[in-house]
## 1
Amino acid sequence: MRMLRVAAVQLRCGIDPAANREHALPFIREAATAGARFIATPENTYRLDRNRERSLAAAGPEKGDAELAAWARIAQECGVWLLLGSAAIATGRGTVFNRSFLYTPDGNVAARYDKINMFDVTLGGGETYRESEAVEPGTEAVMVAGPMNAKIGLTICYDLRFAALYAAYAKAGADIIVTPAAFTVPTGQAHWETLLRARAIETGAFVIAPAQGGLHEDGRATWGHSTIVDPWGRVRAKLDHDMPGVLVADLDLDQVAEARAKIPAWAGGREFVGP
């Protein structure tokens, strides 16, 4: 039995990166004290701001970013693998990448992932989002060997709706797929848990989903309900609210092989033509 204790941190981030880090730090320390070796925070942990002009003006390059260096020190201080759910990183072309950073316990960057699928939607009731107006999509799925050599696939929020990305991680042998998110309230109510469970079932992998929750400084409301799902689609742990908090769970990594042996749909179906 390969047991790995993990944690998902639920936050209510605002515009100031330093304040967001201080907001997250007690929960990260709580999880580390509880024995979590892998801790993940939500999308937009660095800064959550839907004001396009202000957000673009505030974004800078990765190199020399003092806040990113501070997050590396948190990983080192706590001795954990730490996923900074995402930060807006300037591309130099008037846009940003929505980028996750995975830090090792010694504070090095083990992996970076740029969100591939842009949240361009019209939800009705005045809620319209055009992430692609400011964010340049990534093009590469990223998987890394983490604690206990667990293979961890990285995604961000809207990626959750694209089963092909998750299937690619399953075929590459991912044990865990992480989905840091800032789901809206309408989409969270309707789809959040259903999609998380579906992706876990389809891939035969654990899905860890730390979320933003509540009413934010920029006026946006997010769903919260951070969740951890096992390879059989069972919800192992959930924060059933939108308040900041931390979720800790023990993952038996051997369950991945067991689930995939029972139902090998993750390997892909037969080829077909049409419609």
Note: The longest strand covers residues 81-90.
## 2
Amino acid sequence: MNPFIGAPNKQKSILGIGNALIDVLIHISDDAVLKKFGLPKGSMTLVDATLSEEIKKETKGSTRNIQTGGSAANTIHGISRLGGQCGYIGKISDDELGNFYLEDFKKNRINTHFFFSETGTGHATGLISPDSERTFGTYLGAAMELTAEEMIPDIFRNYGIMHIEGYLVQNHALIEAAMKTAHENGLLISIDMASFNIVAANLDFLQHIVREYVDIVFANEEEAMSFTGKQPEKALSEIAEMCSIAVVKLGAHGSLIKSGNRIIRIEAIPAKSVDTTGAGDIYASGFLYALAENLDLEVAGKIGSLLAGNVVEVVGAKIPEETWDSLLPLIENLKTK
């Protein structure tokens, strides 16, 4: 069952908060560029504007595409496409990239709570290796200037769940202020651990906020290891002792969910992986949407898995429109089983 069944109706609306970034996704022929710029494969590394431009110059002959990104933003986009009620907090600039970002959210009927900065809109350069693993060099720009003082209660009051990305952990005051305000306003709190190196560098703080505020934790295998020092099954149990629902994502091997004494194993759907960008984000879309709709945890995991299996077959973190057309009837079937 869903442990939140019976919660107030406002629970159906989900608020995301994260780094508002434009994703610049680039296919690389080998991993030499990762070594040249000191980017650990499969991780997210913060870079300054100069290094970001150097990476782009080094890969200027490679295939690339541009879309709105940021982990929590990707999750909120997915919830919107599922028909869920949702909103997003982030900071952008009144520049070309920022306007692109804002228009994309309006087009997708997402309530926006944007703050603006003179600093340019942030962007993440995603380098996609031949094995489909993605590595990000991220220039935060305006996104880095989102502050604890901007986490005002009025933003949170009409939502039931807040989903926050672990990438915000570079600002401890911000992430704790957002969680404290959400908690005081009765929201359930969900966090995605974001990246194994981010977890390792902020372990004590992350463990503190999970124990203090968080209801739902999403982590992939590497993040769960960084967070607990344990393999997936044992990591799942340890995380579940800190919160109401723990989810450990295992890529092609599916996912594990634990709530109380109940453990659920979700199989991955067959997929030809092209780019893993956004797989965890869109899994969270399906899972949180299902929780908001008062569906069982197993159904939530299956919807998440279905979405993740489809996004890895395309470049970028967004499922194409024509794929959504075929997915939505399948999701309706899962909801009624």
Note: The CA atoms of residues 311 and 319 lie 5 Å apart.
## 3
Amino acid sequence: MNDNTQLLSAMIRAARAAGGRIMHYFRPGAEVSAAAEITQKSHDHPLTRADTEANEVIQQTLMSETPDYGWLSEETIDSVDRLAKKRIWIVDPLDGTKEFIRGVPEFAVSIALVEEGLPILACLFNPAKDELFTAIAGKGSRKNDMPIQTTRTTHLAGAACLASRSETERGDWASFKDEFALRTTGSIAYKLSLLAEGRADLTFTLTPKNEWDIAAGDLLVREAHGQVTDKDGARLVFNQTLPRLSAVLATNGQLHPALLRRLMAMPLNRDRCRNPDVTPCQPDGK
């Protein structure tokens, strides 16, 4: 299977099947059922059966059809074999696990196909809202098969900005509360899809994130005429030896130069991974 349209169809099947597993445990407005079997991978980084079951169905669906591709997922032990692959699946089977556990419908299945470091296909699915976001490099982004694009806002002051719930609770966004129209939202993958759809003007994090949180959203935003970079303005490159990104800035494109200037003097938040050189850790908000 090499045709991008066929590959995207397989991604959609995998995402919807994973979404079905996730919704088996989800309880809107209430904590998930006991059957979800909540455990802790590390301090404040929960894991549920929904995470692992979603990962299994995605991996089985995609790798059975593309056995020569590489694989990087939050819920799979990493292998250096992926570094030699031209194409690699980068997957977060459930981004926003904390929101999922609390009954907040701000989580997503995130799947990207990366070729030589750059995403070429993206599929992001919020099963609680039946929102399916897709993108093909050079062919635009879509939500539920309808074209989407970012806003055209040109003024940074007062811009609609999606802020991390966990970062807000830690006080990381206190210095921006009078500058942006902040809206606290779970799951950075889902935030990127909302930005691509034009439901906000920008989002950013100065806290390190894992590649699987960002890869699909990166393409969604770019194909919707937005921009995604690191804090220095460089394009994000995926399938690195240590799949960690020091910071992520995403805007509608119009606001990107101003946001880079605004954050130039801001320090990066510390990486809360305990042992990042051994195993990629779970990002904040999981």
Note: The two ends are 33 Å apart (CA to CA).
